[in-house]
Amino acid sequence: MTSGDMRIVEFDTHKASDKLYNLYFELAEKLGEEKRPGESPPPRALLRRMMTTKIPEVKRYWWLVLRKELEKERAIGIARIGFSTKKDPAYQENKHNADIRLDVDKDYRKRGIGSKALKIIIEKAKEDKYVDTLLVDVNLDSGHKFCKKFGGDVALEAAENRLHINEVNWSMIEQWKNEGDVTAEKEGVTLHSFTDCPEDILAEYVNLYTETINQQPFGEIEAEMRVTPESRRLQEEQLKQQGLKWYTKITREKDGKISGLTEFLQIPEMPERIMQLLTGVKQEYRGRGLGKWLKSNMLLYIKDNFSETKYIQTDNAISNEPMISINDRMGFKLNIAQTMYKFDLAELDRKLNGA
Q1: What's the first-to-final CA gap in the chain, in angstroms?
Q2: CATH number belonging to the domain at 161-339, selected among 3.40.630.30, 3.40.50.720, 3.30.565.10, 3.40.190.100
Q3: Distance separating alpha carbons of residues 100 and 115, to the nearest angstrom
Q4: What would be the CATH architecture of the domain defined by 2-131?
Q5: CA–CA separation, 329 vs 351, rounded Å?
Q6: Residues 214-255: tens digit of each pLDDT
Q7: Residues near 55 by Cβ (< 8 Å), separated by ≥ 6?
Q8: Is-above-0.70 flag for pTM?
Q9: How far apart (Å, rounded) are the C-alpha atoms in residues 355 and 347?
Q10: Where are the domains of the chain?
């Protein structure tokens, strides 16, 4: 698509030239500075590995909005859409949703560029006979205004929270661990750690993972997450290809059953940051302090093994009160408020294209 000195081009992350990638990174870094002022951007090599790792469960399409300035092109917009494929274990539950991304350089907003890129996203979405809902994460005022303008409904309120290591109350964390140790000894609960999930517990573990990850609030989003032994092994391999390290701790009851888990990602190229992922306790084992025991053990493990860590980052729905309660007591603080909007595809198409 072209319009004067502007054109929208497909950005195939698996085949794109170094030149096109550099244009993408220049804009992505400018957008990152707007969202997280003063932070160093992720290394380009890391991002490129992540963007070129094949993930069979999802099919993504990207576009760049390019503008010619003084005989040189620069990227001023990014658009993306992602669909579940039949490789997704929860494909039947998720096939009606498509995740989208739409960013425009702050110097070029309010010029209709976002609308033009959104039309391309809509046309791609219409190629899939099942998709009827578009979902997009927003954390800038300009994004909120854009979504409201085109009739987006708030589907989920969430937050990116951070715990700065130099602000941790380590005596409290030690107390949580010690209290958990006493209870665990009385009840015969044991703590175990792994990176790749051991084969002998794989089937049980993915069932627990699926149960606990779906306990978290999804707001108005009609979706489900499901992990199978095959998808777990595939995800382990994908993260290795990306250069990320995945650590998990679990609790096992006296009879050997897995009752809870916590996990995090460590990024060797970004040693200052740890990404806290899922923490969950099976419904029947709640109310015994397992979540606190798991999270305190994990935090102490990070302290002892990753000395360059400056902060731990996690995302939570604001309605996830049990997890927010633990995180608040640990010292996590809001870094960025996030809102997910959802659009009815047919209605959005009518608004933009008069269909």
Answers
A1: 20
A2: 3.40.630.30
A3: 13
A4: 3-Layer(aba) Sandwich (3.40)
A5: 45
A6: 998 999 999 999 999 999 999 999 999 999 999 999 999 999
A7: 238
A8: yes
A9: 9
A10: 2-131, 161-339
